Structures are given as C-alpha cells and as structure tokens.
Amino acid sequence: MNRIVQVLIIAGLAFWSLTAQAQSARLRAANKQFDNLSYVSAVRAYEEFLRADRKKDPAETREALIKLGYSYRKLQDTRNAERVYGELVKDYTDLDSEVYLYYAQALAANGKYRDSQKMYSQYGEKQSQDLRGRRFTVSYMDMSRFYQDSSSYRMYSLPINSRQADFSPMYYKNGLVFVSARDESGVLKRVFNWNQTPFLDLYFHPDTNQLRVPGADLMRPGNSAVLGGGSDAKPGAADPAVEQTKLSKTEIFSRTINTKYHEGPMTFTKDQNFIVFTRNNTSKGKAGKSSDGVRKLKLYSSVNRNGKWVDIQELPFNSNEYSVGHPAFSPDNTKMYFASDMPGGYGGTDIYVVEFNNGQWGTPVNMGKEINTEGNEMFPFVAEGDNLYFSSDGHEGLGGLDVFVAELKDGIAYKGVQNVGAPINSEKDDFGFITDKNRTSGYVSSNRKKGVSDDDIYSFRRTCKQLNILVYDAKTNTPLENADVRIMRNGVNQDLRITDMQGRTDLCVDTNTEYEFKAIKEGYAMNSVRFSTLTQSPKPVMNVSIYLERSENTLVKGVIKTEVDQQPAKGVRVTLRNEKDKTEQTVMTGPDGGYEFDVKPNAPYTITAQKDRYATKKAQYGKAKRKTKVVTDSLGLYGVGDVFQLKNIYYDLNKFFIRADAAHELDHVLAILKEYPQMQIELRSHTDARATDAYNLRLSENRARAAMDYLVSRGVSANRLVARGYGESEIVNGCVDGVNCTENEHQQNRRTEFKILSVQ
Predict the structure, then answer these.
(1) CA 53, 59, 60, 65 torsion-angle sign
(2) How far apart are CA 159 and CA 437, in angstroms?
(3) Roughly how many angstroms between the first and final C-alpha of the chain, as a whole number?
(4) Percent of the chain that is helix, strand, coil (3-state, to 5)
(5) Least C-beta-crowded within 10 Å: which of 91, 216, 350, 660?
(6) 34 to 45, 66, 193, 376: CA distances (angstroms)
(7) Residue 334, class by beta-carbon neighbours within 10 Å (0-12 exposed, 13-18 middle, 19+ buried)?
C-alpha cells in the first residue's frame, strides 16, 4: 500500500511538473509577443494562459495580468483594460503606482468618472511627485466646466471615413489631406505587427464642400496614432454602394511620399509647396531601428515641383533613438511645432518648437511645463491669432486624449491651457484638431464611435451665441449711429465695430470670457460696460446697452504700427498720461493695433507705447483745446532684428565716400539714434556684382565704415554702431555675374541698410 501511495505521489508530482512547464511555456510565448510589441497576439496568449489553470503560480498570474492590461491599453481597448486592472487592484496590494494610473485612465475613458477619481486619488498617494493624481482628483469633483459650451457646437461624421482608421486632417488647397489605414489595392496585404492593421498612408479629398452631410449630426459628447503606435480595424461593414461613393472621392496623396511603412500626420507651408510629414525611420527603402530594436518615427520634408513631390529630406533633429512627429507650421511659417519623446522632456511625449528661416532649421526647444505634463502631449496645430491647439492625456479632461488650447504671446502660453470641452472632446481619444481663427468650424479625429481603435474624422461647426451691443444718447435715449464700439476681450483690445442706424452692432461671444465694450463717439464722453460669459445663458440672443453723455472732452485715437513694414502691432501696452492731474489710462492693442482715450480739454498729455523687444515710443502733446473734438495719431515702433534700407544712400562706382544726397538720409538715422539713446545698430553695406568678390567685400566694408564715421562725427558713440560689408552676396535684383544690367539697376545694389541689434 505504501508503495502504491508513493507511486501515485510521484506520478502526481510529475504531472504537476509537466503542467507547470506547460504553463511557463505559455507565459514565455506570451511574453515574447509582448516584447515584440505584437499586442494583439500578446492579448490572445495571455488570455489563454490565464484560462488554462486556476491554480497557477500567483507571481506568474500577477505578471500576466499586468502585461495583459498594458496590452489592452496599447490597443486602446479601454473596456478590457478596465476589467484586467480592476482584477489586479482587487487581488493584489503590492502593485506599482502606474497600475492605479492606467486603471484611472481606463475608467475615465469608459465614462466612470467617480470610480476614476478614487483611483487617481490612490495614484496620487503612491506617486506624489506626479501632479496628475491631485489634479484629476479635484477635476472630477465637478464635471460641468467641460460642458459649458457644448450646446453651441454641432458635429458631423464625414463620408470619407473608411472601415479602417482615418485621422489627422490638414487643410490643403480646397480639400483635406489626412492619414488612413484603409484597405490597399493588390493581392498582398501588409499589416502592422502592433495591432494587425494596414500601414498608414496619406490620402487627399479635393473638396471640403462635399463633406457637408445633412442629417449626420452627432451630438454625443472621443485612437490616436501615438508616436510609435498604430490603429486597429473597426468592426462592422458599410453599405457597399455608399462605400464606393466615398472612396471614389478620395485619392492617394502622393506615390512618392507614401511607402510600405507608416506615413502619418503632416503640415504644409502657407504656399502649400513645402510639406513636412511623419514617417517610420527608413533610409533608402530600408527600415532603421533604435539600439533597443524599435523603429522610431522621423520627420521628412519634400517640395512640390511641377505638381510632383520631390527632394525628400530628413529633418536635421531626427534621431534613431527617439521619435519626432506630428508637425505643424505656424501661420507665418517662421516656426514649426511637433511632438517628441526625446530625452529631457516632462513626460511621455512633449510639444517642441523649432525656428524655420529661409529653409534652415534651428534647434528644437521644449514648450515648457505650462504646455507639457507628466503624460503625453501631441498633435499640435496653430491657428491664425497664435492659438496653439494640441491633444493631451496629462491635463484634466474627459478621458483619453482631449483637445486643449493655449494662447501664445511671444511663444509663451501666458494664460495656461484650456480644455476646449464637449462635444469636441469626449471620454475617448480626441486629436488631430484643425480649425479657423475663431474656432467657428474645423475638423477633429476621434474613436468615440465604438472605442478601441476606430478613428474617424468629424467636422464641427459652432453656432453663434449672439450679443447685440446697443449705444444710446443718455439724455434722449435715441440710438447713436456711427459710434465706434471697441471690443475688449480679457483686457486686450480686439475688433472695432461701428453701430448702424439703430445704434446697434453685434458679435458672437466666446465662453469663459470677460468682455468690456467701449463706446466712442465725437461730442460724447467715452463709456463702457462689462459682460461675462463665465456663466452660460440659455438665451440664444442677448443684449447689452451703453449710454453716452454729451461732453467737451477730446477723443484721442490712433494705431500702433511696426516701422519696418507699417503693419498694425498687436500686444502693445499703450498708456496715456494726463500731465496736469497725473492720471493714467492704459490699453493693450489687439490685431488692428488701435487705441482710444478720453482726454479732458486744456490738459497736456503723453502717450507711451511699450512692447518686449521693441524700443519704447513716447509722444508728447500740448493742451487739447476745447474745440478739438478728435485727435488722430499713429505711432511707429522699432524692433530688434528689423532691417531698414536707406534708399537714398548710393555710391559712385568703386567709391566709398558719403555723397551729399546720402548725408540727408544718414541724418534721418542720426535722429532715430538720438531719440532712442540705448539703441544699437549694424550698418550693412552692399555692392553690385562687378569686380571680384574679394574687391567688392573690401569695398563694402569701407562703405559701411564711412557711414559709421559720419554718424560718429555727429556725436553717436562708436560702441552703439557695428559696420559690416556684405560685398555682392545679397544682390536684390538678379544683376549677378554674367547678367547684363543698366547702370541704374547696378546702382540699386550699391546700397546701405541699418539693422537694429538691441533697443536697451
């Protein structure tokens, strides 16, 4: 009997050993798929491992659950991620803090904000250095701020959406270029190992007018191609006839840009002849990998010549060791914003900015902690007016990636960031956002429809919250026609409107904004009223009235411009000082550079205009006479880096002395230097293309020195001046070597300029 028991025990141990070996083999196989970033295969393998035996090793079970939850997270399957992380938190206590973070994010993405709040709170206790725990815990106490403007928007699903992922549209000509994983033609179907979906390419729909679909209103309050990531197929099939109609309107954007690997979000310069786009790391058709075996994303540029995209080049700040992607040019093409996980950032991926000047790239600069968080910031877009939009899962939002906006001033998000709210944002991922200056219409990508990785592109349109501004005579209550109404938004001058015969003008107001409306009319004292949209009004149309009283005061108004191009200067602090009673009034100029003040008669006053990197301008005025109703004056600002051509300074051939006609123009420079005693300038002299390069360089240096000596002889300190010759390196009219030009054309190149180096 003892031998029988012994045999049974030994047999049981052998069976248990074989079972354990089989279990370990399943886990090793799952881990291999996980390490290869094959998350679809990893999910199947881990689920099979966990189903195989309820009595498996607790340590292996814990490992499998952690990696399974992470795999579902990478596939944007938030429901299964919630299930797995919930099981982990229930059964284990010695978990890394990130498990609580991922669980909180999955709960929020599924609309379970109260439960998410609890997990964020636990995450904050375990990881106090990461501010997301505290911020989201507080944020989810009151969700109303995410829905303040939701009734003003309508969203529409677009007919260009396919059964695969479609996202990140960008304006191009009269249509949209966008990223898609739609099915390819041909027998061979290439799929991305990450999630078994087709590789991404760029597609083009030529006419946005065709994308307006009546009856497709989506009022529900939503995969992102994250850096290094991909998209999954969405279940279900569209009607074949409808699908054929959709696809016939959409074409491959460029066969030279699209490759067998991922091509992703892109941006165009204003003339639309230069593109920067995201692509997997490739060189001469071969894939490149980082030291840890991962194929990162890089940025590439291309130019359009004769309708073809050619000369594809890597950007100089790419790296095999980290990703750069999601580019967005500023409206003036001087900067480009992008996302990267390069070392030295604040979180997973950060937003960076790089200077772009005459085809040359500067050094990327992190946008700072006002924009970037411990989470992921990506998909930037800059609208007219210097509003930077981007998506983030690190700032407080509705779940997943939300769209945020930051108003930039000199490249700084000086007011922080603001969640744009529902319905543009949802509990799922919302990204790839583009819009016009005032966010009245645009497009956004989202996987809100079914979750997982079913990205679609949606258009949105904002309905007007109309505010009527009515201006009356305070004594007679009669409407005042042709009164100016200055709109001030959050303390900054904006548009200047004029009232009609009924004394009325109107505008569409934004939410969460403090307005001041200032009414100005000759013969009346200026008056203003304040209006706030921090609380939402249910009325579709609202009214505000301003009453003006008769007055003998003088209206002082004008425009601040930049001297270099005579364009209105935005963001200038303009102060009027009454020199009689020492009172001051201050305004900040908006896009039109305008300012208005009310001045008592018989009082001298001074106007001062100040802006960073510009010389402060002061203008003094005598007493405003009682009969003078309106004083109009425009002021010009000189800025660092401005270059002015002294058009009347020309030189005789092979000469460098100052001609009589040049002295008058230099006297103008002398007057500027005396007005701004801290200003430093560079005198830049140029020659025509005749003679040798060396001779012309020496001649131009002598000419610049002659101009400098002229100014020094009239009292300007030499340490405020730099003289530099450029020879024939900057010809202005094409009269280079070998080109026949008239003497007058050659003389245009024998010129002197001055460039402002500093103003303080």
Answers:
(1) positive
(2) 25
(3) 103
(4) 25, 35, 45
(5) 660
(6) 9, 11, 11, 22
(7) exposed
Q: Which residues contact 213 (CB under 8 A, 6 or more apart)?
A: 156, 157, 158, 159
- Which helix (H) or strand (E) is 35 found in, with range? helix 2-35
Per the omega criterion (within 30 degrees of 0), is the bond before 343 cis? no
Paired tokens of 721: 């001046």
What's the Rg (C-alpha) of the chain? 33
Q: Residue 505's pLDDT is what? A: 97
**Sequence letter at residue 614:** Y
For residue 15, the model assigns a pLDDT of 40
Ranges of the chain with pLDDT below 50: 1, 3-19, 186-192, 194-195, 214-248
Tokens of 78: 């938030």
Give pLDDT, residue 629: 73
Asked if residues 54 and 24 have their Cβ atoms less than 8 Å apart, the reply is no
CA angle 713, 718, 719 (to 5 degrees): 165
Long-range contacts from 498-505, C-beta under 8 angstroms, 24+ separation: 499/469, 499/470, 499/471, 502/470, 503/470, 503/471, 503/472, 503/478, 503/479, 504/468, 504/469, 504/470, 504/471, 504/479, 505/468, 505/469
**Single-letter code of the amino acid located at 133:** G
Query: What are the C-alpha distances in Å from 169 to residues 162, 206, 328, 365, 434?
Result: 14, 12, 12, 25, 7
CA angle 429–432–434, rounded 5-degree value = 130
Helix axes 97-109, 78-91, angle to 10 degrees: 140
Q: Which two tokens stand for residue 361?
A: 């790239």
DSSP state of 424: T
Phi and psi angles of residue 252, each rounded to the nearest 5 degrees, phi first = -65, 135
Q: HSE of 296 in the Cβ direction (CA atoms, 13 Å)?
A: 20
d(CA 289, CA 298): 11
State the SS3 of 689-723.
CCCCHHHHHHHHHHHHHHHHHHHHCCCCCHHHEEE
Q: What's the residue count for the chain?
A: 760
pTM of the model: 0.69
Measure the CA–CA gap between 283 and 295, rounded to whole angstroms: 12
| Angle subtended at Cα 126 by Cα 125 and Cα 127, rounded to the nearest 5 degrees | 95
436-445 contact pairs (CB < 8 A, 24+): 436/383, 436/384, 437/383, 437/384, 437/385, 437/387, 438/385, 438/508, 438/510, 439/383, 439/387, 439/405, 440/508, 443/158, 443/169, 443/176, 444/155, 444/403, 445/166, 445/167, 445/168, 445/169, 445/224
Q: Tell me 209's DSSP state.
A: G
With the CA atoms of 301, 305, 306 and 308 taken in that order, what torsion angle do they form, in degrees rounded to the nearest 10? -30
* Residue among 238, 181, 241, 171 nearest 211 (CA): 171
Q: Which residues pair with 587 in a beta bridge?
A: 574
Task: For CA atoms 687, 693, 696, 700, give the dihedral sign.
Answer: positive
| Residue 198 CB coordination number (10 Å) | 19
Burial class (CB in 10 A: 0-12, 13-18, 19+), 306: exposed
> What is the C-alpha separation between 155 and 446, in angstroms, rounded?
11
d(CA 691, CA 617): 43
Q: Say what the pLDDT of residue 96 is.
A: 94
